[in-house]
Fold this sequence. Notes:
single chain, 329 residues, alpha+beta, 18-stranded mixed sheet, 40% strand, globular
Amino acid sequence: MGDALAPEIAATDYHTAGEPFRIVTAGVPPIAGATVRERRERAAASEPVETVRRLLCHEPRGHADMYGCFLVAPDDDGADLGVLFWHKDGYSTACGHGTIALGAWAVESGAVDAPRDGPVDVTIDVPSGRVVARVDVGGGIVERVAFRNVPSFVVARDVEAAGVAVDVSYGGAIYASVPASRFGLRVVSDDLPALIAAGRAVKQALEGTEVARHPDDERLSGIYGTILYEDLGPLHQRNVTIFADGEVDRSPCGSGTSARCALLAADGLLGEGDVLRHDSIVGSTFTARVVGSVAEGVLTEVEGMAYRTGEHRFVLDPRDPLGTGFVLR
Length: 329
């Protein structure tokens, strides 16, 4: 196991609205593939790469809800960087909170040149497509980040899952949306164990069904998460997204926010110029807008902020009986 790892793995950690994001800057074995989407498939099949993911995501260096990414080459010169998003169960197709963190990191690390005052675009190739993080800088300091997502669209309405009706939409990944009240719950920390159980049940009920399929690329298929939400007022919602296998998004979920916008826009509740306030279960907030439409769906922009929390040099002692660690829920 030790031979599969570089002597050190370097990473910069951020949090976006409370959700962790570990950006691995050195120590990842080469990942084959001509595109970011192809590299996602190759990474999952590569034991040396998987060893690094497990090491950084599992305890004692991570935890069951850890999230991060590997930096890879973009698909072409039109993007500044490429990225593979990972969590404890594998690799996701999209990650909005991670895109916000990457925008902040690209400017703060000097990976992308930025003005001392004003906006700069950071263009990123992710498995779901090309996204752009607009980073606003004031006095040399990152003040906010908004990312323009791939087109978002409604997949299906009023689908039965786990005894309730849910809506399914796409925002870079496929999400099921359901009011928490349909399970007799609220989006509050006291209800979190039951919210996790409900989110898992909905995902399991829909997995492998027609609504879990992406219309154009099977590699983007699969119900990634369940968004349980409650209305707090006009265009003001609080949600918790249960993704992968019972993982809890501490942020309002960036790609999930885009998926929610697609539903609200289709209902005529979110028009161009309107702003959705999307809160998380920990009280953090994203704002989101519909900024246009294309044949594939609506174009959304989700705004938040990410903050650097640490710089790390991870190692694996070959004598360590725990190896790449464990997951304890």
